[in-house]
Automatic annotation (TrEMBL):
InterPro entries in UniProt: Acyl_CoA_acyltransferase (IPR016181), GNAT_dom (IPR000182), GNPNAT1-like (IPR039143)
Native source organism of the sequence: Streptomyces ficellus
Any one Pfam family match given in the protein's UniProt record, by short name: Acetyltransf_10
Domain N-acetyltransferase: 5-155
UniProt-listed Enzyme Commission number(s): 2.3.1.-
One Gene Ontology term of the molecular function aspect: acyltransferase activity
The protein, known as: GNAT family N-acetyltransferase
PANTHER family: GLUCOSAMINE 6-PHOSPHATE N-ACETYLTRANSFERASE
UniProt enzyme class: transferase
UniProt keyword annotation of Transferase present: yes
Domain of life per record: Bacteria
Amino acid sequence: MSEFVVREAVTEADREAGFAVRREVFVTEQGVPEEIEYDAYDATAVHVLAVRRADAAALGTGRLLYGPHAAGKTGGADGVGSLGRLAVSKAARGLGIGVALVRAIEEAARARGLTAVDLHAQTQALGFYERLGYEAYGDEFQDAGIPHLAMRRVL
């Protein structure tokens, strides 16, 4: 049995715990301005949260955008969701949490009738997503001053 469990973040407390992980990873570690880390998409996204079994401490998070809310991230492609804001606390890395979060987001996408998932990967994370079946497309671009590539996986 793993040390953690991944679930949809349905309560306000779950979402706040996920936001705290995002703040730790993106704002504190990577220097992303806090005012751009949180956006209007957060209100309509499906959020997932990884928590430690022993004490329910938040370890990682991610979100899925779908339908009209994903159009800006997926180029408006029908049936394609957008995986984003994937973050794992520094102390919890190497436990398989990132993989579990991605798979949970993919399951949430399937449950909503989606046939593919797009994401904007930091270039330093390309290998991680490639190992999970994502393929890069398009040109490199900057997001929050960090180089990214668009990637997609057909479900």
